[in-house]
Specification:
The protein is of the alpha/beta class and 564 residues long. 51% of the residues lie in helices and 11% in strands. The protein is globular, with a radius of gyration of 26 Å.
Length: 564
């Protein structure tokens, strides 16, 4: 209720400021309200707008149960990894108690003989123990890790009584995470040996750390142009303008007509050396489509013409697209890869993700080419944590900057969180053939997507690039198909997108997300296929049609009055 009141007050104040000018130009109340809405949309992100609609939905006029398809948080988790994590922690606690046990105080686990004690403690007939046995065997037999070293590192880490060491990533964790990325995102390209990992507090923290380090290290300066692949996750559009980075963003747009792929005319923008960085989500959010092989190949030509281009790709939805291939696999020298386990494994609350960079990368070269004045400044900044600041790689600078440099020695993702990431990765890696969990996750969103499209009477996109985690729906197109183009024009003139979403929430209890907030086209809404059950998506379509029917009754009434 407070959000609704605040919204009303803001619109009222904007109206008061706009009234004189609008009236002088022959304006009217409706146009002023729309102007106020547009101004408010600039001030509020799509997520803040949706938060208001959640409040409306709670007391919706129809008394319906709330169906919130606004958030991307999945309504599933991976149970096996949670069982394995707690089971392994119990093993590690037992190791500590072997060293010393006085009341609730225990010691530290020992390296010598830990592999034998692990084998003795695990019961191969227990599903969780069997998974841990398979996971350790994979690390030893496939990754070539020493069994005792692995178990000692993971045991100390899960106990959480040591600072992360190294602060960037635990050594065995780096090997495991590299194997996971290689298996799920690279599509045949072998990059694990040359890729370095920095585990972070989710993908969002990774992005914040990267932008902070790019700015601090003078690789992006105020006034520089960065390109953003749109439509895109709303907060990412706001990063260039926050904290006085002073960056100038340009859109590299994709549309439904192009299958949400980036057309040639848009990719050409990246060839301009004035464009310092290109930021994208792949598969995209909200369109939920991966870049095609053709576009990936075309990006190689882009980099040939703009070799200093820094590419940031967020690939959190990569496992939901068929035969997915990350930009990093094609352009490892120019690309910084961000990945999060949050969506696939239902781990949004864990905040576990990572930054991956090639050991040989454009950022390190650009650091070497900085003007001497900038080098001197950075030398003084990093001299407190290294004796050779000029040689400090960019990724290590990201780690240092994540803790304001001075606390570099205590940086890094918590060690228990790194172990949890390992459990998630190994739950996939132990399968030589198809991973049944990933298949189930993909089948789940596919069934929900198909049910929604059928209920809305829309053709389903069966392309391999469609990840189906979200979908963008054009409400105006549905209105036109249902009642004709004249009604769709009336709806566009009489309701803003936010009016429609407010009515859908306040009258029908359905929460969707505002498409233009992602820089999608007018009239679109984003529907998450992750956080409701299949039958709920059929119900969403039904309630959307109910609202359109009510609008159409109003439209017909107005037409009769106008005719009279």
């Amino acid at each position: 209720m407070k959000n609704t009141i605040l919204r009303t007050v803001i619109i009222y104040l904007i109206l008061c400021m706009a009234v004189p000018a609008a009236l002088a130009e022959g304006g009217n109340v409706i146009s002023l309200h729309q102007e106020a809405e547009a101004q408010l949309e600039k001030e509020l992100g799509a997520f803040e707008i949706t938060a208001m609609q959640r409040e409306l939905a709670k007391t919706n006029e129809a008394g319906y149960s709330v169906l919130d398809a606004g958030r991307g948080n999945p309504n599933w988790i991976n149970a096996q990894t949670r069982y394995a994590f707690t089971r392994f922690m119990n093993f590690a606690i037992g190791e500590c108690e072997l060293d010393m046990s006085q009341g609730s105080m225990a010691g530290h686990g020992k390296l010598e003989g830990v592999g034998e004690r692990f084998d003795a403690a695990m019961n191969p007939d227990d599903p969780t123990d069997a998974f841990l046995i398979a996971a350790v065997d994979y690390c030893v037999n496939t990754l070539g890790l020493d069994k005792d070293t692995l178990l000692k590192e993971l045991g100390d880490a899960v106990i959480g009584d040591y600072y992360p060491s190294p602060s960037r990533c635990l050594p065995c964790t780096e090997a495991i995470q590299n194997a996971y990325l290689q298996s799920t995102l690279y599509n045949g390209e072998d990059l694990s040996a040359e890729t370095q990992i920095f585990p972070t507090e989710g993908g969002s923290a990774a992005m914040v750390y990267i932008f902070e380090a790019l700015s601090h290290n003078k690789l992006l300066k105020a006034g520089d142009q960065i390109a953003i692949g749109t439509p895109i996750f709303t907060p990412y559009m706001q990063i260039p303008s926050v904290k006085d980075y002073g960056l100038v963003s340009i859109d590299v747009s994709s549309t439904e007509e192009d299958g949400w792929d980036i057309p040639e005319a848009e990719l050409v923008k990246l060839e301009d050396p004035a464009v310092k960085a290109f930021f994208l989500v792949n598969p995209s959010n909200p369109a939920s489509h991966a870049l095609s092989e053709k576009t990936l190949k075309r990006m190689e030509l882009v980099v040939e013409k703009n070799p200093d281009l820094i590419i940031l790709t967020d690939d959190v939805y990569g496992t939901f697209a068929q035969d997915f291939k990350t930009v990093y696999a094609v352009l490892p020298y120019n690309t910084i890869l961000v990945y999060s386990y949050s969506k696939l494994y239902g781990a949004t609350g864990w905040r576990v993700g990572m930054i991956a960079m090639n050991k040989d990368n454009v950022c390190d070269r650009l650091l070497r080419e900085l003007p001497e004045e900038d080098k001197a400044f950075l030398r003084s900044e990093y001299a407190i944590v290294t004796s050779e600041p000029d040689e400090m790689p960019f990724l290590d600078r990201v780690v240092a900057d994540s803790r304001s440099i001075g606390l570099y020695h205590t940086s890094g993702l918590s060690t228990p969180s790194q172990v949890f990431m390992d459990m998630l990765a190994l739950s996939h890696l132990i399968y030589e053939a198809e991973d049944p969990y990933i298949k189930l996750a993909n089948d789940t969103v596919r069934a929900r997507y198909t049910a929604l499209m059928n209920a809305l009477g829309l053709p389903a996109d069966e392309s391999a690039q469609n990840a189906r985690y979200y979908t963008l729906v054009d409400v105006l197109a549905i209105a036109s198909a249902r009642y004709g183009e004249d009604f769709a024009d009336w709806l566009k003139d009489s309701r803003t997108e936010i009016d429609f979403l407010n009515d859908l929430a306040g009258k029908k209890g359905v929460v969707l997300m505002y498409g233009p907030g992602f820089n999608a086209s007018e009239g679109t809404v984003r529907i998450s296929l992750a956080n409701l059950y299949t039958e709920d998506y059929v119900e969403i379509a039904s309630r959307l049609f109910e609202l359109l029917d009510e609008y159409y009754t109003e439209y017909e009434t107005e037409a009769v009055l106008d005719a009279a």
